[in-house]
Amino acid sequence: MNLDVRTITEDDLPNWVRARRTGYVLPPTPGRTELAFRRELMDLSRAQGAFDAGRCVATYRSFTQRISVPGGASVTANAVSNVSVSATHRRRGLLSRMIDRDLREAAERGDAAATLIAAEYPIYGRFGFGPATRVTEWEVDVARSGVDPRHAGPGDGGRVDYVDVSELRELGPALYERVRAVRHGLVDRTDVWWRRNTGALPMDDAPWTEPFAVVHRSAEGTVDGLLVFTADDRWEAKLPHQTATVLDLVAVSPAAERALWLFLLSVDWITSVRTGYRAPDDLLPDLLPDPRAARVVMDADLLWLRPLDVPALLRSRTYAVGGSLVLDVTDPAGPGPSSGSVGGGRSGSSGPAAGRFLLDAGPDGATCTRTTRPADLTLPAAVLGSLFLGGESAVRLAALGRVAEERPGAAGRADALLRTGRRPWCADIF
Protein backbone atom coordinates (compact mmCIF):
# COMPACT_ATOMS: atom_id res chain seq x y z
CA MET A 1 0.00 0.00 0.00
CA ASN A 2 1.44 3.35 -1.05
CA LEU A 3 1.06 5.70 1.92
CA ASP A 4 2.30 9.28 1.68
CA VAL A 5 3.62 10.59 5.02
CA ARG A 6 4.36 14.30 4.84
CA THR A 7 4.07 17.74 6.40
CA ILE A 8 0.53 19.03 6.02
CA THR A 9 -0.55 22.27 4.35
CA GLU A 10 -3.35 24.71 5.10
CA ASP A 11 -5.52 22.92 2.52
CA ASP A 12 -4.96 19.59 4.33
CA LEU A 13 -6.19 20.85 7.69
CA PRO A 14 -9.90 19.83 7.44
CA ASN A 15 -8.86 16.36 6.24
CA TRP A 16 -6.24 16.14 9.03
CA VAL A 17 -8.67 17.22 11.77
CA ARG A 18 -11.22 14.72 10.50
CA ALA A 19 -8.59 11.96 10.72
CA ARG A 20 -7.65 13.02 14.23
CA ARG A 21 -11.29 12.93 15.35
CA THR A 22 -11.74 9.52 13.72
CA GLY A 23 -8.65 8.16 15.48
CA TYR A 24 -9.93 9.52 18.80
CA VAL A 25 -13.36 7.91 18.13
CA LEU A 26 -15.13 11.27 18.02
CA PRO A 27 -17.81 12.36 15.56
CA PRO A 28 -15.66 12.78 12.43
CA THR A 29 -16.71 16.08 10.91
CA PRO A 30 -15.16 19.14 12.60
CA GLY A 31 -17.08 22.36 12.98
CA ARG A 32 -15.89 25.77 11.82
CA THR A 33 -14.95 26.75 15.36
CA GLU A 34 -12.61 23.78 15.77
CA LEU A 35 -10.95 24.43 12.43
CA ALA A 36 -10.39 28.08 13.35
CA PHE A 37 -8.95 27.02 16.71
CA ARG A 38 -6.61 24.53 15.07
CA ARG A 39 -5.37 27.14 12.61
CA GLU A 40 -4.43 29.43 15.47
CA LEU A 41 -3.02 26.68 17.67
CA MET A 42 -0.88 24.72 15.24
CA ASP A 43 2.46 25.28 13.58
CA LEU A 44 1.72 23.47 10.33
CA SER A 45 5.42 23.09 9.58
CA ARG A 46 5.55 20.68 12.54
CA ALA A 47 2.34 18.78 11.74
CA GLN A 48 2.45 15.53 9.79
CA GLY A 49 -0.18 13.36 8.22
CA ALA A 50 -0.29 10.01 6.46
CA PHE A 51 -2.44 9.97 3.33
CA ASP A 52 -3.95 7.02 1.48
CA ALA A 53 -5.34 7.99 -1.93
CA GLY A 54 -5.75 11.55 -0.66
CA ARG A 55 -7.51 10.65 2.61
CA CYS A 56 -5.68 11.42 5.84
CA VAL A 57 -5.40 8.26 7.95
CA ALA A 58 -2.83 9.26 10.62
CA THR A 59 -1.98 12.51 12.39
CA TYR A 60 0.93 13.90 14.41
CA ARG A 61 2.15 17.30 15.49
CA SER A 62 4.75 18.82 17.79
CA PHE A 63 5.50 22.23 19.22
CA THR A 64 8.09 23.95 21.38
CA GLN A 65 7.52 23.65 25.09
CA ARG A 66 9.33 24.75 28.26
CA ILE A 67 9.34 22.44 31.26
CA SER A 68 10.48 23.45 34.75
CA VAL A 69 13.20 21.32 36.34
CA PRO A 70 14.49 20.96 39.92
CA GLY A 71 16.21 24.17 40.94
CA GLY A 72 13.89 26.58 39.12
CA ALA A 73 15.28 26.56 35.57
CA SER A 74 13.42 25.44 32.45
CA VAL A 75 14.52 23.38 29.48
CA THR A 76 13.25 23.40 25.91
CA ALA A 77 11.33 20.30 24.93
CA ASN A 78 9.72 19.02 21.76
CA ALA A 79 6.12 18.41 22.84
CA VAL A 80 4.30 15.68 20.90
CA SER A 81 0.52 15.79 20.55
CA ASN A 82 -2.50 14.78 18.45
CA VAL A 83 -1.07 11.37 17.57
CA SER A 84 -3.64 9.14 15.88
CA VAL A 85 -3.75 6.28 13.41
CA SER A 86 -7.08 5.24 11.94
CA ALA A 87 -8.18 1.71 12.84
CA THR A 88 -7.95 0.74 9.15
CA HIS A 89 -4.24 1.57 8.97
CA ARG A 90 -2.67 0.38 12.23
CA ARG A 91 0.52 -1.68 12.48
CA ARG A 92 1.92 -0.34 9.24
CA GLY A 93 4.70 1.76 10.75
CA LEU A 94 2.98 5.13 10.33
CA LEU A 95 3.65 6.34 13.88
CA SER A 96 7.26 5.14 13.63
CA ARG A 97 7.81 7.14 10.46
CA MET A 98 6.31 10.31 11.89
CA ILE A 99 7.88 10.19 15.34
CA ASP A 100 11.33 9.18 14.09
CA ARG A 101 11.42 12.16 11.76
CA ASP A 102 10.15 14.54 14.42
CA LEU A 103 12.61 13.38 17.08
CA ARG A 104 15.50 13.61 14.63
CA GLU A 105 14.53 17.19 13.79
CA ALA A 106 14.14 18.02 17.50
CA ALA A 107 17.63 16.71 18.24
CA GLU A 108 19.04 18.74 15.35
CA ARG A 109 17.35 21.88 16.74
CA GLY A 110 19.06 21.29 20.08
CA ASP A 111 15.96 20.45 22.13
CA ALA A 112 17.02 18.83 25.40
CA ALA A 113 14.07 16.44 25.56
CA ALA A 114 10.75 15.45 24.07
CA THR A 115 7.51 15.20 26.02
CA LEU A 116 4.01 13.83 25.57
CA ILE A 117 0.88 12.73 27.41
CA ALA A 118 0.36 9.04 26.65
CA ALA A 119 -3.25 8.08 25.99
CA GLU A 120 -2.15 4.42 26.02
CA TYR A 121 0.71 3.20 28.21
CA PRO A 122 2.44 0.52 26.07
CA ILE A 123 3.13 2.62 22.96
CA TYR A 124 5.89 5.11 23.70
CA GLY A 125 8.53 3.25 25.69
CA ARG A 126 9.97 1.80 22.48
CA PHE A 127 10.56 5.36 21.25
CA GLY A 128 12.62 6.28 24.32
CA PHE A 129 9.90 7.95 26.42
CA GLY A 130 9.48 7.15 30.10
CA PRO A 131 6.72 8.21 32.53
CA ALA A 132 8.19 11.16 34.46
CA THR A 133 5.25 12.47 36.53
CA ARG A 134 2.16 10.99 38.15
CA VAL A 135 -1.13 12.56 39.13
CA THR A 136 -3.67 11.65 41.80
CA GLU A 137 -7.27 12.79 42.00
CA TRP A 138 -9.20 12.78 45.26
CA GLU A 139 -12.88 13.17 46.05
CA VAL A 140 -13.42 14.87 49.40
CA ASP A 141 -16.53 14.34 51.51
CA VAL A 142 -16.78 17.86 52.92
CA ALA A 143 -18.99 16.94 55.89
CA ARG A 144 -16.53 14.27 57.03
CA SER A 145 -13.41 16.37 56.39
CA GLY A 146 -13.67 18.22 59.71
CA VAL A 147 -13.07 21.62 58.10
CA ASP A 148 -14.88 24.30 60.11
CA PRO A 149 -16.06 27.10 57.77
CA ARG A 150 -15.86 29.56 60.66
CA HIS A 151 -12.09 29.07 60.84
CA ALA A 152 -11.24 28.43 57.20
CA GLY A 153 -9.99 31.91 56.33
CA PRO A 154 -6.33 32.58 55.47
CA GLY A 155 -4.21 32.44 58.58
CA ASP A 156 -1.28 34.35 57.11
CA GLY A 157 -2.82 37.82 56.99
CA GLY A 158 -3.80 37.35 53.35
CA ARG A 159 -7.22 37.24 51.73
CA VAL A 160 -9.20 35.27 49.15
CA ASP A 161 -11.19 37.09 46.45
CA TYR A 162 -13.38 36.09 43.54
CA VAL A 163 -12.28 37.52 40.20
CA ASP A 164 -13.81 37.49 36.73
CA VAL A 165 -12.21 35.26 34.11
CA SER A 166 -11.10 38.39 32.26
CA GLU A 167 -9.08 39.33 35.36
CA LEU A 168 -7.79 35.79 35.56
CA ARG A 169 -6.53 36.12 32.00
CA GLU A 170 -4.56 39.19 33.10
CA LEU A 171 -3.30 37.89 36.46
CA GLY A 172 -2.77 34.24 35.64
CA PRO A 173 0.22 34.14 33.27
CA ALA A 174 2.67 36.02 35.50
CA LEU A 175 1.55 34.10 38.58
CA TYR A 176 1.90 30.76 36.82
CA GLU A 177 5.46 31.57 35.77
CA ARG A 178 6.29 32.32 39.41
CA VAL A 179 4.86 28.94 40.37
CA ARG A 180 6.92 27.20 37.68
CA ALA A 181 10.05 28.66 39.27
CA VAL A 182 9.33 26.81 42.53
CA ARG A 183 7.59 23.64 41.27
CA HIS A 184 9.31 21.30 38.82
CA GLY A 185 7.51 19.34 36.14
CA LEU A 186 5.18 22.15 35.08
CA VAL A 187 4.98 22.99 31.39
CA ASP A 188 4.57 26.54 30.13
CA ARG A 189 1.17 27.96 29.21
CA THR A 190 0.93 29.99 26.03
CA ASP A 191 -1.39 32.90 25.32
CA VAL A 192 -3.56 30.46 23.35
CA TRP A 193 -3.81 28.27 26.48
CA TRP A 194 -5.02 31.17 28.64
CA ARG A 195 -7.50 32.38 26.04
CA ARG A 196 -8.87 28.87 25.50
CA ASN A 197 -9.27 28.18 29.22
CA THR A 198 -10.90 31.52 29.97
CA GLY A 199 -13.46 31.42 27.16
CA ALA A 200 -11.82 33.99 24.87
CA LEU A 201 -10.87 31.40 22.24
CA PRO A 202 -13.48 28.65 21.80
CA MET A 203 -12.07 25.24 20.95
CA ASP A 204 -15.23 23.83 19.40
CA ASP A 205 -18.93 24.52 19.00
CA ALA A 206 -19.84 23.41 22.53
CA PRO A 207 -21.21 26.26 24.68
CA TRP A 208 -18.73 27.87 27.06
CA THR A 209 -19.52 27.42 30.75
CA GLU A 210 -17.87 30.09 32.84
CA PRO A 211 -16.12 28.68 35.92
CA PHE A 212 -15.57 30.38 39.26
CA ALA A 213 -12.17 32.02 39.66
CA VAL A 214 -10.55 32.85 42.99
CA VAL A 215 -7.18 34.38 43.85
CA HIS A 216 -5.23 34.46 47.10
CA ARG A 217 -3.50 37.71 47.96
CA SER A 218 -0.68 37.85 50.46
CA ALA A 219 -0.65 40.28 53.38
CA GLU A 220 1.25 42.66 51.07
CA GLY A 221 -1.52 42.44 48.46
CA THR A 222 0.44 40.32 45.94
CA VAL A 223 -1.50 37.63 44.09
CA ASP A 224 0.27 34.37 44.98
CA GLY A 225 -2.34 31.70 44.24
CA LEU A 226 -5.32 30.99 42.01
CA LEU A 227 -8.19 28.53 42.06
CA VAL A 228 -10.59 27.80 39.19
CA PHE A 229 -13.54 25.46 39.73
CA THR A 230 -17.00 24.54 38.55
CA ALA A 231 -19.99 23.38 40.59
CA ASP A 232 -23.02 21.37 39.60
CA ASP A 233 -26.54 22.23 40.77
CA ARG A 234 -27.98 19.16 42.47
CA TRP A 235 -30.53 19.09 45.29
CA GLU A 236 -32.22 16.14 46.95
CA ALA A 237 -35.15 16.44 49.40
CA LYS A 238 -34.55 20.17 49.61
CA LEU A 239 -30.89 19.64 50.59
CA PRO A 240 -27.85 20.66 48.53
CA HIS A 241 -25.61 17.92 47.13
CA GLN A 242 -23.30 19.97 44.96
CA THR A 243 -19.89 18.82 43.75
CA ALA A 244 -17.13 21.33 43.10
CA THR A 245 -14.60 20.23 40.46
CA VAL A 246 -11.20 21.90 40.51
CA LEU A 247 -9.97 22.92 37.06
CA ASP A 248 -6.82 24.66 38.26
CA LEU A 249 -5.14 25.36 41.59
CA VAL A 250 -1.60 26.72 41.67
CA ALA A 251 0.18 28.70 44.36
CA VAL A 252 3.63 30.17 44.94
CA SER A 253 3.61 29.31 48.65
CA PRO A 254 2.21 26.44 50.73
CA ALA A 255 0.30 29.02 52.82
CA ALA A 256 -1.56 30.24 49.74
CA GLU A 257 -2.23 26.68 48.63
CA ARG A 258 -3.68 25.73 52.01
CA ALA A 259 -5.83 28.87 52.08
CA LEU A 260 -7.35 28.08 48.67
CA TRP A 261 -8.16 24.48 49.59
CA LEU A 262 -9.75 25.51 52.89
CA PHE A 263 -11.74 28.21 51.13
CA LEU A 264 -13.20 25.73 48.64
CA LEU A 265 -14.04 23.24 51.38
CA SER A 266 -15.98 25.95 53.24
CA VAL A 267 -18.19 27.18 50.36
CA ASP A 268 -21.88 26.87 51.24
CA TRP A 269 -23.82 24.06 49.53
CA ILE A 270 -20.64 22.27 48.38
CA THR A 271 -20.83 18.74 49.80
CA SER A 272 -18.14 17.10 47.69
CA VAL A 273 -14.92 18.30 46.06
CA ARG A 274 -13.17 16.64 43.12
CA THR A 275 -9.57 17.83 43.22
CA GLY A 276 -8.57 17.43 39.58
CA TYR A 277 -5.06 16.23 38.70
CA ARG A 278 -2.75 16.78 41.69
CA ALA A 279 0.73 15.55 42.54
CA PRO A 280 0.72 12.30 44.55
CA ASP A 281 2.24 14.22 47.49
CA ASP A 282 -0.26 17.10 47.34
CA LEU A 283 -1.10 18.82 50.63
CA LEU A 284 -4.44 17.07 50.42
CA PRO A 285 -5.55 14.94 52.13
CA ASP A 286 -3.29 15.60 55.11
CA LEU A 287 -4.31 19.22 55.61
CA LEU A 288 -7.80 17.94 56.53
CA PRO A 289 -8.65 17.28 60.17
CA ASP A 290 -9.85 13.87 58.92
CA PRO A 291 -7.70 12.76 55.95
CA ARG A 292 -9.94 9.72 55.43
CA ALA A 293 -12.57 12.07 54.06
CA ALA A 294 -10.46 12.23 50.87
CA ARG A 295 -10.87 9.16 48.69
CA VAL A 296 -8.47 8.44 45.81
CA VAL A 297 -10.50 8.13 42.61
CA MET A 298 -7.61 8.10 40.13
CA ASP A 299 -3.84 7.62 40.20
CA ALA A 300 -1.87 7.39 36.96
CA ASP A 301 1.13 8.52 34.94
CA LEU A 302 0.78 11.81 33.06
CA LEU A 303 3.84 13.52 31.55
CA TRP A 304 6.30 11.29 29.67
CA LEU A 305 9.83 12.50 28.93
CA ARG A 306 12.37 11.39 26.35
CA PRO A 307 16.00 12.60 26.67
CA LEU A 308 17.55 13.96 23.48
CA ASP A 309 20.60 15.91 24.72
CA VAL A 310 21.68 14.13 27.91
CA PRO A 311 24.46 16.56 28.96
CA ALA A 312 22.20 19.60 28.48
CA LEU A 313 19.36 17.92 30.33
CA LEU A 314 21.41 16.85 33.34
CA ARG A 315 23.21 20.22 33.54
CA SER A 316 19.91 22.10 33.62
CA ARG A 317 18.83 21.05 37.12
CA THR A 318 20.23 21.16 40.63
CA TYR A 319 20.80 18.17 42.91
CA ALA A 320 20.08 17.54 46.57
CA VAL A 321 23.64 16.52 47.46
CA GLY A 322 27.07 16.61 45.88
CA GLY A 323 28.48 13.61 44.05
CA SER A 324 29.37 12.06 40.73
CA LEU A 325 27.82 9.29 38.67
CA VAL A 326 28.71 7.63 35.37
CA LEU A 327 25.63 6.70 33.34
CA ASP A 328 25.77 4.41 30.33
CA VAL A 329 22.61 5.29 28.38
CA THR A 330 21.31 2.98 25.67
CA ASP A 331 19.06 4.53 23.04
CA PRO A 332 17.48 2.83 20.04
CA ALA A 333 17.83 4.61 16.74
CA GLY A 334 14.24 3.63 16.02
CA PRO A 335 11.49 1.51 17.57
CA GLY A 336 12.59 -1.84 18.89
CA PRO A 337 11.09 -4.63 20.98
CA SER A 338 11.23 -2.66 24.24
CA SER A 339 13.19 0.16 25.83
CA GLY A 340 11.70 -0.46 29.26
CA SER A 341 14.42 -2.91 30.30
CA VAL A 342 18.19 -2.81 30.19
CA GLY A 343 19.38 -3.60 26.69
CA GLY A 344 15.94 -3.09 25.13
CA GLY A 345 15.45 -1.42 21.80
CA ARG A 346 17.28 -1.77 18.52
CA SER A 347 20.86 -2.96 18.74
CA GLY A 348 23.63 -0.44 18.31
CA SER A 349 22.28 2.19 20.71
CA SER A 350 22.74 4.93 18.13
CA GLY A 351 19.86 7.22 19.14
CA PRO A 352 20.48 10.84 20.22
CA ALA A 353 20.70 10.02 23.95
CA ALA A 354 23.12 7.11 23.57
CA GLY A 355 26.50 7.30 25.27
CA ARG A 356 28.39 7.21 28.53
CA PHE A 357 28.17 10.37 30.62
CA LEU A 358 29.95 11.63 33.73
CA LEU A 359 27.65 13.69 35.95
CA ASP A 360 29.33 15.87 38.61
CA ALA A 361 26.45 17.39 40.55
CA GLY A 362 25.51 19.36 43.60
CA PRO A 363 23.00 21.83 45.06
CA ASP A 364 24.46 24.67 42.97
CA GLY A 365 24.32 22.88 39.65
CA ALA A 366 26.15 20.29 37.63
CA THR A 367 28.49 19.47 34.80
CA CYS A 368 27.89 16.55 32.47
CA THR A 369 30.28 15.35 29.79
CA ARG A 370 30.87 12.26 27.72
CA THR A 371 33.41 9.93 29.26
CA THR A 372 35.22 6.64 28.82
CA ARG A 373 35.23 5.91 32.56
CA PRO A 374 33.59 2.66 33.67
CA ALA A 375 29.83 2.98 34.12
CA ASP A 376 28.13 3.05 37.52
CA LEU A 377 24.68 2.42 36.03
CA THR A 378 23.46 1.19 32.66
CA LEU A 379 19.95 2.24 31.70
CA PRO A 380 17.77 2.91 28.64
CA ALA A 381 16.94 6.47 27.61
CA ALA A 382 13.32 5.91 28.62
CA VAL A 383 14.37 5.05 32.17
CA LEU A 384 16.55 8.16 32.37
CA GLY A 385 13.43 10.08 31.30
CA SER A 386 11.59 8.63 34.30
CA LEU A 387 14.41 9.48 36.71
CA PHE A 388 15.31 12.97 35.50
CA LEU A 389 12.66 15.01 37.33
CA GLY A 390 13.25 13.20 40.61
CA GLY A 391 9.95 11.40 41.01
CA GLU A 392 11.15 7.84 40.45
CA SER A 393 13.69 5.69 42.32
CA ALA A 394 16.71 4.10 40.65
CA VAL A 395 16.77 1.50 43.43
CA ARG A 396 13.19 0.54 42.64
CA LEU A 397 13.86 0.42 38.88
CA ALA A 398 16.94 -1.71 39.48
CA ALA A 399 14.76 -4.15 41.41
CA LEU A 400 12.44 -4.24 38.38
CA GLY A 401 15.38 -5.03 36.09
CA ARG A 402 15.23 -1.70 34.26
CA VAL A 403 18.51 -0.34 35.64
CA ALA A 404 21.73 -2.36 35.82
CA GLU A 405 24.09 -1.58 38.70
CA GLU A 406 27.63 -1.85 37.41
CA ARG A 407 29.02 -0.84 40.82
CA PRO A 408 27.44 -1.92 44.13
CA GLY A 409 25.39 0.87 45.67
CA ALA A 410 25.27 2.96 42.50
CA ALA A 411 21.47 2.98 42.37
CA GLY A 412 21.30 4.31 45.92
CA ARG A 413 23.82 6.99 45.02
CA ALA A 414 21.68 7.92 42.00
CA ASP A 415 18.65 8.30 44.27
CA ALA A 416 20.59 10.53 46.65
CA LEU A 417 21.47 12.79 43.72
CA LEU A 418 18.31 12.72 41.64
CA ARG A 419 15.34 12.35 44.01
CA THR A 420 13.58 15.56 45.04
CA GLY A 421 11.84 16.54 48.28
CA ARG A 422 8.54 17.10 46.43
CA ARG A 423 7.29 14.97 43.56
CA PRO A 424 7.35 16.51 40.08
CA TRP A 425 3.93 17.67 38.99
CA CYS A 426 2.23 18.42 35.67
CA ALA A 427 -1.54 18.71 35.39
CA ASP A 428 -1.88 20.06 31.84
CA ILE A 429 -3.02 17.88 28.94
CA PHE A 430 -1.56 19.02 25.62
Highlighted features:
3 domains; 11 helices; alpha+beta; GNAT_dom; acyltransferase; 30% strand; Aminopeptidase; 430 residues; NAcTrfase_Eis; seven-stranded mixed β-sheet; Nonspecific Lipid-transfer Protein, Chain A
Basic shape: globular
Range of helix content: 10-25%
Integer tally of domains = 3
Strand order of the largest sheet: 1-2-3-4-5-16-6
Q: Return the average pLDDT rounded to an integer.
A: 94
- Fraction in beta strands: 25-35%
DSSP summary, beta strand count: 21
Termini Cα gap: 32 Å
Structural class label: alpha+beta
Annotated CATH homologous superfamily of the largest domain: Gcn5-related N-acetyltransferase (GNAT)
The CATH architecture designation of the largest domain is 3-Layer(aba) Sandwich
The low-pLDDT segments are 335-340, 343-349
Largest sheet: 7 strands, mixed
CATH class of the largest domain: Alpha Beta
What is the CATH topology assignment of the largest domain? Aminopeptidase
InterPro entries: Acetyltransf_17, Acetyltransferase_Eis, Acyl_CoA_acyltransferase, Eis_dom, GNAT_dom, NAcTrfase_Eis, SCP2_sterol-bd_dom_sf
Protein name: GNAT family N-acetyltransferase
Family: Belongs to the acetyltransferase Eis family.
Subunit structure: Homohexamer; trimer of dimers.
What does this structure look like?
Residues 330-354 are annotated as: Disordered. The protein folds into three domains: 4-111, 3-Layer(aba) Sandwich (Aminopeptidase); 135-301, Aminopeptidase, CATH 3.40.630; 309-418, 2-Layer Sandwich (Nonspecific Lipid-transfer Protein, Chain A), CATH 3.30.1050. A seven-stranded mixed β-sheet has the order 1-2-3-4-5-16-6. Strands 8-9-10-13-14-7-15 form a seven-stranded mixed β-sheet, sandwiched between helices. It contains eleven helices and 21 strands. It is globular, with a radius of gyration of 23 Å. It has 430 residues and is of the alpha+beta class.
